[in-house]
TrEMBL record, chain A:
Database matches in PROSITE patterns: EF_HAND_1 (PS00018), EF_HAND_2 (PS50222)
Record field: transmembrane: none
Any GO MF annotation of the entry: protein kinase inhibitor activity
Annotated compartments: Cell projection, Lamellipodium; Cell projection, Ruffle membrane; Cytoplasm; Membrane
SUPFAM superfamilies in alphabetical order: EF-hand
Encoding gene per record: TESC
Protein name, UniProt field: Calcineurin B homologous protein 3
Family according to the record: Belongs to the calcineurin regulatory subunit family. CHP subfamily.
Gene3D superfamilies: EF-hand
Species of provenance: Oncorhynchus kisutch (Coho salmon)
TrEMBL record, chain B:
Comp. bias (Basic and acidic residues): 708-720
A Pfam family of this chain: NEXCaM_BD
Protein name: Sodium/hydrogen exchanger
Presence of keyword Cytoplasm: no
GO cellular component: basolateral plasma membrane
Domain Sodium/hydrogen exchanger regulatory region: 565-660
Positions of the Cation/H+ exchanger transmembrane domain: 77-471
Source species of the chain: Oncorhynchus mykiss
Length: 235, 760
């Protein structure tokens, strides 16, 4: 599609706003960003996210991108992954990073906490069996330390093992030597991370003002080849 | 809680009586000896003037003047510390009344006593305060400043510190001037500038008082860092306002240019202070890179560079407090990567010790100065000052929070606002600044009295009531959490995740810039400031090693083999495999062997003597190797069954095997020339040839490796694996010894006295 796409009108935004909790301005800005990333198409693909220059030096880039295409994060009780996502799904994934409102009750905060921790859990539990096994946890730590070369690999195993032991002791307390700890379930995950106060930590600022012009300048390398191909960009 | 339990019920009381007697006795000799010396002196000269008769050789003579100054200083400090000791012996008192109040009361008593005797009680000399008493407290605060909450809230803190203090100063100064205009008060001579000067002195939240009170209430991190950060950062504002109004009140008039210059001055003072501090911080970090051979003086570098930063910025009338904070914050990550564990402990304890002594002395002197100082009491002025302090603080906090909450992700609740407003205590800085006012100010005494009243009010009333209020309002308390490796992993994971999502969103927020700073730090700065190869180490690994080291040292200190984690859960529980179980009897035997040897090793370690210069090297080695010893033994206990199983496997495997990480072992040989046990660890050799699919082996190895790279001279981790025949040979010998050990039906207790673990 080459033509400029008009922004969806109010009723659609209202729907999305109710579903995800973003304000209209925020949805508008995120929509612009979505179009920028997807090169004006209706759906976003993995490659679109892969080309973001900011993500290139992030050690957990693959997991982040996978999280966007993970059906479990779409709040529709789906499973598995998809190849491309629509704007609505993009927005739903983003809504995991909204801060809780000031006037929320304790129960509402608890729900938000569970939601955010569920997102994290899904990122770790790649085979979707409901538990984070030792292998999966090792993979997580290895990715985190993937910048340190050979040193990282060995210590990653040790760190992951120690972490697993810690979870096991906190959640299970006492185990017979021949019992086997299958993996971190979601409840155990909640338990070990309850001190982090995730609902205040796992947030990013969603702008109410449009700064896409600024971003366009910075992402100009990404847009260069598009201009060469003659595609139009949203200003 | 009393530190010790008394055999008799009355002995606590007796101790208090002794303490009281001591400090009563202190006042008398000081004053009594002064006139005594004078008479002695005249007598001596009288004698020599009159006659040449030989007088008897003075066997015992008193020369107090010779030691007067240090004697008095030491005596005062001793008094302060005895008081502090005394308070903690009375359990109920220290739970209700914060220490600062008690110390002020003691100061009042001592001052009263001295006055009764007829001497002039010493006033808190501003020079002494600013150059000697304040820096340790600020350095302690700055060095141990929790960086993460501070940087996350730095915008809010700055708004409170700068705009809040400005608001307080002008609000109070203005209203007090309006008050003075009222005829009935009788203060019509006070002009606006003097009032504004007074306002600027009294408006600043004091870090010493805040620290003293907040230490005891354990409030949640956010509120703590807000109040505390504000008290630290408002120093720049206070300095500028104070100097500004001091200058102006001499001249008497203010022009627009002056105001503009004042604003410029503020930026110069604050940024200049931070710059000076950062420069000294980098110097300290750079110096610490080379201290691996002179570990004993490492802490001194930290203290001296920081103090130089403070003095240098005070020299230029920049903000000394901000310089100290900047110095501590900048140098800490690099210095801690370079110095030994003992130096770190030394720094921590010295800073805590000095800041504790300083704080105690400050409060006592406040009490004494109250009795001493010239007072001019004016009911209206003083009461109005106190009320205005509270009112302006509350208004300021509410107003600013309203604006700030629009920009914060995590908003400040009403409870938070209340604690921030109520915790705005004034303290000794305000008093010293007031004392510094030259005597030409006609209102100086009145101002001093008002300042002291405000300080007393905030420290006593607000300090004492804040604890029950915190309980009443059910404000969130600080979570007492042990360092958890899971939390650390997820904190780092979250950092990267949020940076990534910000990248997807396309705007550059908090996390993006933090990531950029981290990368810059890693590639350029760390390279220069961290010794050896440690700079490549990611934070997570450093954290993990520190945690392991702490656990191991805990084991060393407690002298037994507790496991930090409940001992029933071990690696077996999380590893998927089918294990033939070893018999319980065998397990018990092996445990007994291990325990016995551990006791022996500990005794041997203790008897080693060391000289002053090799203090750290020897002990460090001992500690690290002992740590390794115990850690590995703890792991060994857990994996006893695994080892048994593998024995049969290894008996058939040829000795000459390719070792995945011989570099580690080689390093051990180099450094452990004297340590008997580390060389002959069987465990690493034992498990080393196992196929990588069994995770235990590998994790045991890098536990070994983790403690090793603490020392900068060891570069084994970075170098690639190198085959070495001698290593394998040694390994083979060790393995054989272990095999013998484990197949031995029973240990011989006497034999183990001389032999290390292996040759049983």
């Amino acid at each position: 599609m080459g033509a400029l796409q008009s922004l969806p009108d109010e009723p659609e935004y209202r729907d999305l706003s109710e579903k995800t909790g973003f304000s209209f301005e925020q949805i508008g800005i995120l929509h612009k960003r979505f179009k920028q990333l997807s090169h004006n198409e209706d759906t976003l693909r993995r490659d679109d996210l892969n080309t973001i220059p900011d993500l290139s030096c992030n050690p957990i880039r693959t997991q982040i991108i996978e999280a966007f295409f993970d059906k479990r994060n779409f709040h529709q009780n789906g499973e598995g992954t998809v190849q491309e996502i629509s704007f609505e799904e993009f927005l739903v994934v983003m809504s995991h990073f909204r801060p809780p409102a000031l006037d929320m009750t304790e129960e509402q905060r608890e729900i938000i906490r569970r939601e955010k921790l569920r997102f994290l859990f899904n990122m770790h539990d790649t085979d979707n069996d409901g538990t984070i096994t030792l292998e999966e946890y090792r993979h997580v730590v290895e990715e985190l330390l993937s910048r340190s070369g050979a040193l990282g690999k060995e210590t990653a195993k040790g760190i992951a093992d120690a972490a697993m032991l810690e979870v096991a002791s906190i959640s299970m307390g006492h185990m017979e030597p021949d019992e086997f700890y299958e993996g971190i379930t979601f409840e155990h995950f909640l338990k070990i991370l309850k001190d982090i106060e995730i609902e205040t930590r796992m947030n990013i600022r969603f702008l109410n003002m449009d700064t896409t012009n600024l971003c366009k300048k910075i992402n100009s390398q990404q847009d260069h080849y598009l201009q060469v191909n003659g595609e139009q960009k949203i200003a | 809680m009393p530190a010790f339990s008394c055999a008799f019920p009355g002995c606590r009381r007796d101790l208090l009586v002794i303490v009281l007697v001591v400090f009563v006795g202190i006042g008398l000799p000081i004053e009594a000896s002064a006139p005594a010396y004078q008479s002695h002196g005249t007598e001596g000269s009288h004698l020599t003037n009159i006659t040449n008769t030989k007088k008897a050789f003075p066997v015992l003579a008193v020369n107090y003047e010779h030691v007067r100054k240090p004697f008095e200083i030491a005596l005062w400090i001793l008094l302060a510390l005895l008081m502090k000791l005394g308070f903690h012996l009375i359990p109920r008192l220290s739970a209700v009344v914060p220490e600062s109040c008690l110390l002020i009361v003691v100061g009042l008593l001592v001052g009263g006593l001295i006055k009764v005797i007829g001497e002039e009680p010493p006033v808190l000399d501003s020079q002494l305060f600013f150059l000697c008493l304040l820096p340790p407290i600020i350095l302690d605060a700055g060095y141990f400043l929790p960086i993460r909450p501070f940087t996350e809230n730095v915008g809010t803190i700055l708004v409170f510190a700068v705009i809040g203090t400005l608001w307080n100063a002008f609000f109070m100064g203005g209203l007090l001037y309006a008050l003075c205009q009222i005829e009935s008060v009788g203060l019509s001579g006070v002009d606006l500038l003097a009032c504004l000067l007074f306002g600027s002195i009294v408006s600043a939240v004091d870090p010493v008082a805040v620290l003293a009170v907040f230490e005891e209430i354990h409030i949640n991190e956010l509120v703590h860092i807000l109040v505390f950060g504000e008290s630290l950062l408002n120093d720049a504002v206070t300095v500028v306002l104070y100097n500004l109004f001091e200058e102006f009140s001499k001249v008497g008039t203010v022009t627009v240019l002056d105001v503009f210059l004042g604003v410029v001055c503020f930026f110069v003072v604050s940024l200049g202070g931070v710059l000076v501090g950062a420069i000294y911080g980098f110097l300290a970090a750079f110096t610490s890179r080379f201290t691996s051979h002179t570990r004993v003086i490492e802490p001194l570098f930290v203290f001296l560079y920081s103090y130089m930063a403070y003095l240098s910025s005070e020299m230029f009338h920049l903000s000394g407090i901000m310089a100290l904070i900047a110095c501590g914050v900048v140098m800490r990550p690099y210095v801690e990567a370079n110095i030994s564990h003992k130096s770190y402990t030394t720094i921590k304890y010295f800073l805590k010790m000095w800041s504790s002594v300083s704080e105690t002395l400050i409060f006592i002197f406040l009490g004494v100065s109250t009795v001493a100082g010239p007072h001019a009491w004016n009911w209206t002025f003083v009461i109005t000052t106190v009320i205005l302090c509270l009112v302006s603080r509350v208004l300021g906090v509410i107003g600013l929070t309203f604006i700030i909450n629009k920009f914060r992700i995590v908003k400040l609740t009403k409870k938070d606002q209340f604690i921030v407003a109520y915790g705005g205590l004034r303290g000794a800085i305000a008093f010293s600044l007031g004392y510094l006012l030259s005597n030409s100010h006609q209102m100086r005494n009145l101002f001093l009295t008002a300042i002291i009243t405000v300080i007393f009010f905030t420290v006593f009333v607000q300090g004492m009531t804040i604890r029950p209020l915190v309980e009443l309002l059910a404000v969130k308390k600080k979570k007492e959490s042990k360092p958890s490796i899971n939390e650390e992993i997820h904190t780092e994971f979250l950092d990267h995740l949020l940076t990534g999502v910000e990248g997807v969103c396309g705007h550059y927020g908090h996390y993006h810039w933090k990531e950029k700073l981290n990368r810059f730090n890693k590639t350029y700065v760390k390279r220069w400031l961290i010794a050896g190869e440690n700079f490549k180490e990611p934070e997570l690994i450093a954290f993990y090693r520190k945690m392991e080291l702490k656990q191991a040292i805990m084991m060393v200190e407690s002298g037994q083999l507790p496991s930090v984690l409940p001992s029933t859960i071990s690696m077996q529980n999380i590893q998927p495999r089918a294990i033939p179980r070893v018999s319980k009897k065998r397990e018990e035997e092996i445990r007994r062997i291990l325990r016995a040897n551990l006791q022996n090793n500990k005794q041997k370690m203790r008897s080693r003597s060391y000289s002053r210069h090799t203090l750290f090297d020897a002990d460090e080695e001992d500690n690290v190797s002992e740590v390794r010893l115990r850690k590995t033994k703890m792991e060994m206990e857990r994996r006893v069954s695994v080892m048994e199983r593998r024995m049969s496997h290894y008996l058939t495997v040829p000795a000459n095997r390719e070792s995945p990480r011989p570099g580690v072992r080689r390093v051990r040989f180099e450094s452990d020339n004297q340590v008997f046990s580390a060389d002959s660890f069987p465990t690493v050799h034992f498990e080393q040839p196992s196929p990588p699919s069994t995770p235990d082996a590998v994790s045991l190895e890098e536990e070994e490796e983790e403690e090793v790279p603490k020392r900068p001279s060891l570069k084994a981790d970075i170098e690639g694996p190198r085959g070495n025949a001698s290593d394998n040979h040694q390994g083979e010998l060790d393995y054989q010894r272990l095999a013998r050990c484990l197949s031995d039906p029973g240990p011989n207790k006497d034999k183990e006295d001389d032999d290390p673990f292996m040759s049983c």
